[in-house]
Specification:
alpha/beta, binds zinc ion, single chain
């Protein structure tokens, strides 16, 4: 049974690696498919993973019609059994509708991979439509970690090192801090755009790794009974992060003052 599957998560959680692995597995099983991407970090018409894998792909432009692409392939007597759709958050809602129609009317399997929410914590249009239409939604299990060690669930954008929560939804920036911005929305940006994954707590407080290190006074780590992250051995950081995520609020502890009170 053909299906529309959406694999989602934050940046750094291995989506493109899984997209390339999925493509490999289906091809190895004798199936034929097409791979698409949009604004990949490595440039146009290529899917790249942080682990170093790279594969050519069809760049999804605003006017690309998935239905027409597949029809053209089949008219040319090219088999198409499945589609690999990376960076699907950048697709339009209409393009996701086309993907669903290909599943239902042509029996293709469509495997879409994308980030759910942008740096403002709002759903990308492509991801929203995929969540609405997919037969199966899978949140990727490779956990990206916030600088505090907790599970990173949100994407932050920094502009010249300062976290911002307003601006164009799509600006392809750098996640490693090595190069300048690549404007994707037709507007040239001034300054350096970078992205970083954070836990919700630190996203809400606009506290990036650099910002946390710049703050003087007690480290911003909760709850108060754990050691500051910076004095812990590195191998226990992820454990602390996990225990914080799942721990219910301790009603016996004093109410927390707002962040601005303590550091403002
Ligand atoms: Zn955090």
């Amino acid at each position: 049974m053909a299906e529309l599957a959406f694999f989602c998560g934050t940046m750094d959680c291995g989506k493109s690696t899984l997209a390339l692995q999925t493509e490999h597995n289906h091809r190895a099983a004798g199936r034929e498919g097409l791979t698409f991407t949009c604004h990949d970090r490595a440039g146009a018409a290529v899917v790249s993973s942080r682990l170093g894998l790279v594969r050519s792909a069809i760049e999804v432009t605003a006017d690309l019609d998935f239905w027409q692409v597949v029809v053209a392939q089949r008219v040319g007597r090219q088999r198409v059994d499945y589609l690999i759709c990376d960076e699907a958050q950048f697709y339009s809602a209409q393009q996701v509708d086309q993907l669903a129609r290909l599943v239902d009317e042509m029996g293709l399997d469509v495997f879409a991979f994308g980030i759910t929410a942008d740096f403002r914590t709002r759903l990308f249009p492509g991801s929203q439509r995929l969540l609405e239409l997919a037969d199966r939604v899978q949140v990727l299990q490779v956990e990206a970690l916030c600088w505090c060690g907790a599970r990173a669930t949100h994407n932050a954008r920094t502009h010249d090192g300062v976290m911002v929560v307003e601006g164009a939804q799509v600006i392809v920036g750098d996640t490693r801090g090595a190069s300048g911005p690549t404007p994707a929305d037709g507007e040239r940006q001034v300054g350096r755009i970078e992205y970083e994954v954070l836990c919700r707590r630190h996203h809400m407080r606009r506290m990036t790794r650099a910002g946390a290190h710049a703050v003087t006074g007690p480290p911003d780590v909760l709850p108060s009974d754990v050691l500051p992250i910076d004095v812990m051995p590195i191998d226990v950081r992820s454990q602390v992060g996990r225990s914080q995520v799942g721990r219910p609020q301790d009603s016996a502890s004093p109410p927390r003052r707002p962040y601005a009170d303590r550091h403002g």
